[in-house]
């Protein structure tokens, strides 16, 4: 079975084509700047050179058509024709309280995702465009949706409720949902397999540190608490997002600076975090480089980023009354030994001991970075959200075919 995995954003669409017989990636790529004057298509077949071209792609339907054309292209393609695509799996950021697991797309599922637009205005409308675009291009192919929020649906009320009037939860479903669930689920199960210990017996803190960043406490193999909230803005300091702040700052700044709701939202989501504090970049590589060259704002941004992450790890260790495993994943977590060292240096009170040599290894494999004598096992676990989406899609489509 061949499965196409799609992660549709408002102006981009990323894809990976899997052969599920051996879970190999046949091709991957992305369409960027959809709806803008010059869209960029990058297509990377597994055994052929990368192709990149610029053209005008006005909407997601055209983008999906272009992806299919690339996958079936005589020269750069990996399929003879589009009928070889057996199913499509989508990443959906917000599943609200409705979706506790991945599901096969039908009219009802689409309506529910639409109802959730309000809770994730930046993400869900774009995902819906992706689903509709696939429907238009591959009308008889089953589609499955995999939610970032699903893994966190096990959180207890003490973790997911906010201390505000209950009517806001009852009427508007204002609560913590949490995100990056597909990644936290994948890396925690990889870690348990690596350690040869059942997930249910490990108290874990999983740090997904990419452009968006979140930290999850995993207890009894389930999400117990997580740093992102009703939206992916709460929690850790991120590339361009503020993370936690005093909520009173919002009306105060709106008043002083005469900002609209959209403007303040954009300020906190797109113009804050590492970018704002460093005054330089949201990209950790650039911030680290500037810091090493003596830039004091970059150093402050890095130190704040580390401090805020360390506080969450400590809070979750307290929340679970212990921690057995600390793991790092995603762009920064997998690649920045400097960040990992800085975080762990302040956590020796928990029994965390880093092994400097192990920490400096660069690899795509799950690995220890703690010393053998460390009470807490510290791991780097490369994430693979797309693979988990492909697996869920495969399983649900097979189940449907057999029923
Ligand atoms: N070698 C590296 N050292 C430090 N940071 C890195 C390195 N490689 C990638 N990153 C950082 O990873 C982040 C992107 O992570 P990623 O998980 O790809 O993000 P997202 O999926 O949220 O866009 C960027 O801040 C980038 O600078
Ligand atoms: C939910 C979220 O923050 O996703 P990303 O890290 O892809 O921005
Ligand atoms: Mg990501």
UniProtKB/TrEMBL annotation:
<keyword id="KW-0479">Metal-binding</keyword>
<keyword id="KW-0460">Magnesium</keyword>
<keyword id="KW-0963">Cytoplasm</keyword>
<dbReference type="GO" id="GO:0005737">
    <property type="term" value="C:cytoplasm"/>
</dbReference>
<dbReference type="GO" id="GO:0006083">
    <property type="term" value="P:acetate metabolic process"/>
</dbReference>
<dbReference type="GO" id="GO:0000287">
    <property type="term" value="F:magnesium ion binding"/>
</dbReference>
<keyword id="KW-0067">ATP-binding</keyword>
<feature type="site" description="Transition state stabilizer">
    <location>
        <position position="241"/>
    </location>
</feature>
<comment type="similarity">
    <text>Belongs to the acetokinase family.</text>
</comment>
<keyword id="KW-0808">Transferase</keyword>
<dbReference type="InterPro" id="IPR023865">
    <property type="entry name" value="Aliphatic_acid_kinase_CS"/>
</dbReference>
<dbReference type="Pfam" id="PF00871">
    <property type="entry name" value="Acetate_kinase"/>
</dbReference>
<dbReference type="InterPro" id="IPR000890">
    <property type="entry name" value="Aliphatic_acid_kin_short-chain"/>
</dbReference>
<dbReference type="InterPro" id="IPR004372">
    <property type="entry name" value="Ac/propionate_kinase"/>
</dbReference>
<dbReference type="InterPro" id="IPR043129">
    <property type="entry name" value="ATPase_NBD"/>
</dbReference>
<dbReference type="GO" id="GO:0005524">
    <property type="term" value="F:ATP binding"/>
</dbReference>
<feature type="binding site">
    <location>
        <position position="14"/>
    </location>
    <ligand>
        <name>ATP</name>
    </ligand>
</feature>
<comment type="function">
    <text>Catalyzes the formation of acetyl phosphate from acetate and ATP. Can also catalyze the reverse reaction.</text>
</comment>
<feature type="site" description="Transition state stabilizer">
    <location>
        <position position="180"/>
    </location>
</feature>
<feature type="binding site">
    <location>
        <position position="91"/>
    </location>
    <ligand>
        <name>substrate</name>
    </ligand>
</feature>
<feature type="binding site">
    <location>
        <position position="7"/>
    </location>
    <ligand>
        <name>Mg(2+)</name>
    </ligand>
</feature>
<comment type="pathway">
    <text>Metabolic intermediate biosynthesis; acetyl-CoA biosynthesis; acetyl-CoA from acetate: step 1/2.</text>
</comment>
<dbReference type="GO" id="GO:0008776">
    <property type="term" value="F:acetate kinase activity"/>
</dbReference>
<dbReference type="GO" id="GO:0006085">
    <property type="term" value="P:acetyl-CoA biosynthetic process"/>
</dbReference>
<keyword id="KW-0547">Nucleotide-binding</keyword>
<feature type="binding site">
    <location>
        <begin position="283"/>
        <end position="285"/>
    </location>
    <ligand>
        <name>ATP</name>
    </ligand>
</feature>
<feature type="binding site">
    <location>
        <begin position="208"/>
        <end position="212"/>
    </location>
    <ligand>
        <name>ATP</name>
    </ligand>
</feature>
<keyword id="KW-0418">Kinase</keyword>
<feature type="binding site">
    <location>
        <begin position="331"/>
        <end position="335"/>
    </location>
    <ligand>
        <name>ATP</name>
    </ligand>
</feature>
<feature type="active site" description="Proton donor/acceptor">
    <location>
        <position position="148"/>
    </location>
</feature>
<feature type="binding site">
    <location>
        <position position="385"/>
    </location>
    <ligand>
        <name>Mg(2+)</name>
    </ligand>
</feature>
<protein>
    <recommendedName>
        <fullName>Acetate kinase</fullName>
        <ecNumber>2.7.2.1</ecNumber>
    </recommendedName>
</protein>
<comment type="subunit">
    <text>Homodimer.</text>
</comment>
């Amino acid at each position: 079975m061949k499965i196409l995995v799609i992660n549709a954003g408002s102006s981009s669409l990323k894809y990976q084509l899997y052969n599920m017989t051996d879970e190999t990636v046949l091709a991957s790529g992305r369409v960027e700047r959809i709806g803008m004057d010059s869209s960029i298509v990058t297509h990377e077949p597994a055994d052929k050179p990368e192709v990149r071209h610029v053209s005008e792609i006005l909407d997601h339907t055209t983008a999906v058509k272009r992806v299919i054309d690339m996958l079936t292209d005589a020269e750069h393609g990996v399929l003879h024709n589009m009928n070889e695509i057996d199913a499509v799996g989508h990443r959906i950021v917000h599943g609200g309280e409705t979706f506790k697991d991945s599901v096969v797309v039908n009219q009802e599922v689409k309506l529910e995702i639409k109802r959730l637009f309000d809770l994730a205005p930046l993400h869900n409308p774009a995902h819906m465009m992706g689903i509709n675009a696939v429907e238009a291009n591959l009308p008889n192919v089953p589609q499955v949706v995999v939610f970032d929020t699903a893994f966190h649906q096990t959180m207890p009320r003490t973790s997911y409720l906010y201390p505000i009037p209950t009517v806001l939860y009852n009427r508007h479903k204002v609560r913590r949902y949490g995100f990056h669930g597909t990644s936290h689920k994948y890396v925690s199960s990889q870690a348990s397999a690596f350690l040869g210990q059942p997930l249910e017996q490990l108290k874990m803190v999983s740090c997904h540190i990419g452009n968006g960043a979140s930290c999850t406490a995993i207890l009894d193999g389930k999400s117990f608490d997580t740093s992102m909230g009703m939206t992916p803005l709460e929690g850790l300091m991120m590339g361009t997002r503020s993370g936690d702040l005093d909520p009173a700052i919002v009306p105060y700044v709106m008043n002083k600076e005469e900002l609209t709701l959209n403007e303040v939202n954009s300020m906190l989501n797109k113009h804050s975090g590492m970018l704002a504090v460093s005054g330089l970049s949201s990209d950790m590589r650039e911030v680290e480089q500037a810091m090493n060259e003596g830039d004091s704002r970059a150093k402050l941004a890095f130190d704040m980023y580390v401090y805020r992450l360390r506080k969450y790890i400590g809070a979750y260790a307290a929340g679970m009354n212990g921690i057995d495993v600390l793991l790092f994943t995603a762009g920064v977590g997998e690649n920045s030994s400097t960040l990992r060292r800085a975080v762990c240096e302040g956590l020796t009170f928990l029994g965390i001991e880093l092994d400097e040599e192990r920490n400096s290894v660069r690899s795509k494999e799950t690995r220890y970075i703690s010393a053998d004598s460390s009470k807490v096992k510290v791991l780097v676990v490369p994430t693979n959200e797309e693979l988990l989406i492909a697996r869920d899609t495969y399983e649900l489509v097979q189940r449907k075919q057999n029923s």
